[in-house]
TrEMBL record:
Keywords: Disulfide bond, Secreted, Signal. This is Meteorin-like protein. Belongs to the meteorin family. GO terms for cellular component: extracellular region. Its main location: secreted. It is found in: Secreted.
């Protein structure tokens, strides 16, 4: 699903006594033309909501895609424009950034559950995570970090709010046209309070079954190398695939040619640095999710362990294969 706003922002006027909410910007409303599920509609304000069908599971939903262009209007465009995205993953493109956006991300998590979110961002805008009493900087154009780094955060409950503040001092480009802002996000529920434990501990039988059914790629294979990527705060497992058990997307960006006719391909899987991934012998069943365009590890049992779990499990969310 996608929303495209293409006309100028128009102030609707501020209520008497309305206060600045973010770095001196004020809240603005606007008229906007947008697309949602193939229909063109007129929005009464910029509080635009894109959402997943109520019957769909969060990871089964298509990403929310929001495109903002031709920003203008009175007051120098220094308002905070609210946007609501009810999808577990998606992107926001802002062609002519001015002022700020308050992007409210609404996941399928229940109240009290831990929500893990990650973003990739580029362009002349700073991105903050909204806390109870302060803002936490997630991305700044001049922070010197790798553009492919996953900038992750955690919140409690089903909602996370990001402030995207345009940096008008950093909008020069060689072509003369101002560069746009591109923000990609991914949300998932995390049941364990300790993030390192959640990412690094071995999966139980029940977690293996759930990971198998929810992963974007499940494959048997051997680990040919583990490459340290400190600039990405992760390591990459180079998996030589011998059999694909489950695959959601046919066009896998992480594939590389193995050059060996006995194997289908080799695939790179990201693992957080804190997990201290090592090169192990034998055949594994790698279960990985696509996060911000990169495959990230969910579970990695040995083939024998997975086959035993399949035999012993009495029920599972889908048909398990080994």
């Amino acid at each position: 699903m996608s929303i495209s706003i293409s006309n100028s922002w128009r102030e609707r006027g501020e209520r008497k006594g309305q206060r600045n909410l973010f770095n001196g910007h004020r809240i603005e409303k606007c008229h906007a033309q947008y697309m949602f599920e193939g229909e063109s509609k007129k929005a009464s304000s910029c509080a635009i909501l894109a959402h997943c069908p109520a019957t769909a599971r969060p990871r089964q939903c298509p990403p929310c895609t929001l495109k903002l262009t031709h920003i203008g209007g009175g007051g120098g465009g220094k308002g905070v424009r609210p946007v609501y995205l009810r999808c577990s993953r998606g992107s926001v493109s802002w062609r002519y950034p001015r002022g700020a956006l308050r992007v409210v991300l609404i996941s399928g998590a229940a109240d009290g559950e831990n929500l893990r979110g990650c973003i990739k961002s580029s362009g002349p805008a700073r991105v903050y995570l909204e806390g109870k009493t302060s803002l936490k900087l997630l991305y700044s154009p001049g922070d010197g970090k790798h553009e492919s780094l996953h900038r992750c955060f955690r919140t409690r409950g089903p909602v996370a709010a990001l402030y995207v503040e345009a940096d008008v001092q950093d909008q020069a480009s060689e072509s003369g046209a101002p560069p746009g802002v591109h923000l990609h996000y991914d949300l998932e529920t995390q049941l364990l309070a300790d993030p390192e434990e959640a990412e690094c501990r071995p999966c139980s039988k029940e977690e293996l079954a759930k990971a198998f059914c929810q992963s974007d790629l499940v494959a048997r294979g051997t680990v040919s190398a583990v490459e340290r990527r400190p600039e990405l705060e992760s390591a990459e497992i180079l998996l030589r695939v011998t059999k694909t058990l489950r695959r959601v997307e046919e066009n896998e960006e992480n594939e590389i040619d193995s050059g060996d006719a006995r194997f289908t391909r080799e695939t790179r899987i990201r693992v957080p640095t804190v997990c201290d991934a090592r090169h192990g012998q034998g055949e594994f069943v790698i279960m990985a999710k696509k996060r911000l365009g990169d495959l990230t590890l969910s579970c990695a049992p040995r083939l024998e362990e997975w086959a035993k779990a399949v035999r012993e499990l009495e029920s599972a969310p889908c048909v398990l294969r080994s």
